[in-house]
Predict the structure.
Amino acid sequence: MKQTKIEYRNGNVYEGEVNENNEKHGKGKMTYQNGDVYEGGWYKDLYHGKGKIIHEDGVVYEGGWKNSMQHGWGKITYENGDVYEGVWKNNKENLIETRKAKKKARKAAEEEAARQAAEEEEALKVEEKIIIRQEKQKAYYEKNKARWKAYYQKNKAKIAAKRKARYQKNKENNKKRKTV
C-alpha cells in the first residue's frame, strides 16, 4: 500500500492509502465537493472498519462501517443535538442488538462489582485475622513477660555459659573449615 492524494474531476479529494489497483484501501480521508468529510478505514474503495463522517449539514457519525454502510457499534449526532449510540446494521439503528449489547455490558459491570466486593470482603477478613493474631501474641507476651524475666534472672549464669560454649564450638568449626 502507498500514500497518495487523488483529486477527482467532480471536486472530491482523497488523501490516504491505496492498494496495487489504485483503490482506496487502508486509512484515508475523503473530502467531498459538497462539504462532507469521511476519515477512517477503507476497503476496496468502500468505507470499512472504524471511521467518522461529518456531513455538511452538521450530522456526525463515528463508529463501524462495512461496505460503506454504518455497521457495528457507532454514535450519530444529529444537527438538532439528538444522539443515538448503539448497534447499526446496513445503515439502520439496530435497537434489539443495542439492548442486548447494553444488557451484556451492564451484566459484566455488575459481575465485576460483585467480584471486587468479594475481594474487599476477603481482604478485610484477612486483616481481621492478622489483628486478632497480633492481639493474641501481645497478650501471650504480657502474660508471660514476668515469668520469662524471673527465669532469666534465675538462670543467667547457665544461659551465659551455654552461649559461650556455642560461640567456642562455632569458632572451632570455622577454624577446621579453613584448614580443610
